[in-house]
Amino acid sequence: MHDARVMRGGHKRNCETAEQRPQLGMALTDSISRLINYYQRHGLEATLQRARVFLRRLFSSHRLVLYYYDLSKNGSIASVRNWPDHLTVARITSQEEIDQEDWQKVANFWNPELSHRNFSERFRKGATVWLIRSEGKLAGYGWTLTGRPIKPHFFPFAANDVHLFDFLIFPECRGRGINPLLVTYILDQLAAERRTRAYIEAAEWNHSQLTSLSKTGFHLLGVARKASLFGRTFVEWGRPKEPSGSESAQVSGKS
Ligand SMILES: CC(C)(COP(=O)(O)OP(=O)(O)OC[C@H]1O[C@@H](n2cnc3c(N)ncnc32)[C@H](O)[C@@H]1OP(=O)(O)O)[C@@H](O)C(=O)NCCC(=O)NCCS
Questions:
Q1: How far is the centre of ligand 1, averaged over its atoms, from the C-alpha of 172 (Å)?
Q2: Which of 55, 78, 192, 216 is spaced 20 to 30 A from 62 at the CA atom?
Q3: Which residue, by CA, sits nearest to atom 20 of ligand 1?
Q4: Does the structure show a pLDDT above 50 at 251?
Q5: Atom 12, ligand 1: which residue's CA is nearest?
């Protein structure tokens, strides 16, 4: 169950930074040439109008609630010691390690082709998927990546920071505290490996995930939305809708 593997953050991070440079340059050149093209065909006024619509769309994305957890100050989390017997967690770092039955469940829940592409891309970036099983059957999963966020984020990560992202509990297993247990288990493992900080975010509309995270050790960091343009990320910070008194709580799994 405690299948600890060596995390692979730093090396991959350097590789990607080097690979990213030409991509950012190409994106910028592409955007400028499209803008010039539009201006030549439609004139200045239409181009400015188009730019205004583009910017409005860019910043009208959903707000995210951001959380952090200080792994260096918080050692083992007490609740994981009361781990329910029917739950097990496997830590997976490549597609080949995924059991066929588990993969069918993941792939058929989404689109098989998209799932495959998504998983391959994440493994290539050095991400880990944590599968949680209830009575031996796959109940859900969540991802981690060390040293950088999985996509442009709200702030830079340090080499030992970990991004938790894309958690899913299959519908038949929801509402039983499995997600907070999985998140807590992961935090516990990361703390044992002396990682520094963990970050996670949830859409402000996603009450299930917000409620779920309130049962973990994560602390509220803020509410923000972001937009990426020319390889740069623009962040707008806001106020949480309702300031919560329970920013941190320990897990109590209903099993
Ligand atoms: C968000 C999610 C991971 C929570 O997992 P979970 O194991 O059900 O979490 P919890 O048991 O802590 O339940 C959290 C809340 O979900 C809601 N919930 C309960 N049963 C539910 C069900 N059958 N379906 C949907 N939501 C339910 C409840 O409000 C619950 O809060 P409660 O403790 O007051 O009952 C899960 O609902 C899910 O996979 N959703 C779709 C994917 C998603 O939104 N992922 C998160 C963003 S990456």
A1: 11
A2: 216
A3: 175
A4: no
A5: 212
Residue 76 has pLDDT above 60, yes or no: no
Residues β-bridged to residue 15: none
Q: In Å, how far are 26, 47, 49, 51, 77 from 40, measured between CA atoms?
A: 21, 9, 14, 14, 61
Residue 199 and residue 157 in contact, taking contact as beta carbons nearer than 8 Å: yes
Substitution candidate for ligand 1 out of 212, 216, 254 with most atoms within 8 A of CB: 212
Ligand 1 center from residue 175 Cα (angstroms): 5
User: What is the pLDDT, as a whole number, of residue 253?
Assistant: 36
Q: Is the pLDDT of residue 102 over 80?
A: yes
Ligand 1, CB cutoff 6 Å, lining residues: 166-169, 174-180, 202, 206, 208-209, 211-212, 215
Distances from the Cα of 58 to the Cαs of 54, 155, 225, 233, 235, in angstroms? Answer: 6, 18, 10, 11, 11
Q: pTM to 2 decimals?
A: 0.77
Q: Averaged over 25-49, what is the pLDDT?
A: 76
Considering the domain delimited by 2-238, tell me its CATH architecture: 3-Layer(aba) Sandwich (3.40)
